[in-house]
Amino acid sequence: xxxxxxxxxxxxxxxxxxxxxxxxxRIRPARRIDLLAxxxxxxxxxxxxxxGHSARIAYLAHQVAVELELGEETRTRLLYxxxxxxxxxxxxxxxxxxxxxxxxxxxxxxDAQVVExxxxxxxxxxxxxxxxxxxxxxxxxxxxxxxxxxxxxEYTDHADHPLRxxxxxxxxxxxxxxxxVGAEVANALRAVLRDDETxxxxxxxxxxxxxxxxxxxxxxxxxxxxxxTVEAMGTVIDAAFREPGRAVRVATxxxxxxxxxxxxxxxxxxxxxxxxxxxIGQLGVAQHILDKPSILTVDEMELMRRxxxxxxxxxxxxxGFEDITTWVEQHHERPDGRGYPEMLSDDELPLPPxxxxxxxxxxxxxxxxxxxxxxxxxxxxxxxxxxxxxQFDSDVVEALPEALLTVAxxxxxxxxxxxxxxx
Length: 423
What we know:
Elements (H helix, E strand, L loop, with lengths): L31 H8 L1 H6 L6 H15 L4 H13 L12 H11 L4 H8 L21 H16 L5 H9 L6 H5 L1 H11 L2 H7 L4 H8 L8 H19 L4 H15 L4 H13 L9 H4 L7 H18 L6 H9 L20 H15 L11 H10 L7 H18 L3 H8 L1
Helix pairs in contact: 1-12, 1-13, 3-4, 3-7, 3-10, 3-12, 4-6, 4-7, 5-6, 6-7, 14-15, 14-19, 14-21, 15-18, 15-19, 17-18, 18-19, 20-22, 21-22
């Protein structure tokens, strides 16, 4: 079976009653590394890399640092630099990949040394890299370790077994290593690659979990870090293919709707996190498909229909995200059973993804698109009302005007617009 979640068939998940969220909503405190070890797989999809590429880079770079006897703080920085080294591939910035990736690193609140390491991951020991023109010891050691790990993965990423990966690497031109990363890092890498444990870990079932455990110097778990890391991921998703602030608006409106419809505070907080992460799976969909003004082909539609399941697979191993994972996967399902990816019937579809669907659709209607201008608030509400009971839940749509009034000030909306729409 194909282990790539971007191509694997997404099976049905356990679902809760349509009248309430699952009773087990418990968002646990976490560290940034716990979350980014899982989120980084989204950047592999953007860069057309095999899923898990970033995690393999992070692990190998960390092990090179261990061989070099670098300190724990440096090793933790290396985990982040490896996970995010090519994260800028998702962004339509008119700058280098290294600069765009450094911008992503900064969004997650990581320190300046991680930013500089990512900015320098395309430099070479012999000075033939770029874009900074650095050479030899002027290149941060973290960047050299990531480059060494990247060199390995260019030969081994497409292997499906440790023995095949080793065989692929034996055919590599090892004379490339010293000009790329210098003799010291090259020798450390060779030592790492001789260790059987390296290969078992790189092809293990839970490499993101292992990376999280290696980040022993990343502080204590906290709910604040969960909120900040998820919000930063939402900002990156917005920058990749949506209008700025979309994730925050969907999250805020979803929480307000959940409160009006009687969900618990914990469930409402979960809705806020899910609202930020709804479209993480779309990072693997080509921009020309997302922006296409005409009808999508069958193949293009299949790629779009796959993104909720792809996103849920990235989130399902995050501790405490079990319900959030389900809601993300189901947010394109419909009460009339014509949604995707599972075409759930009305009595199978719980309330939280119904809320997310309405909040997401409202802000999508309010945004400019290549094929139309943004709708005014009253126009957007009317479009949703016409589709209530079929595409969207009627009770959620009915609660929408009041929810918009409660969040107008927070989102910088004109309360008068919400009042007019409510009337």
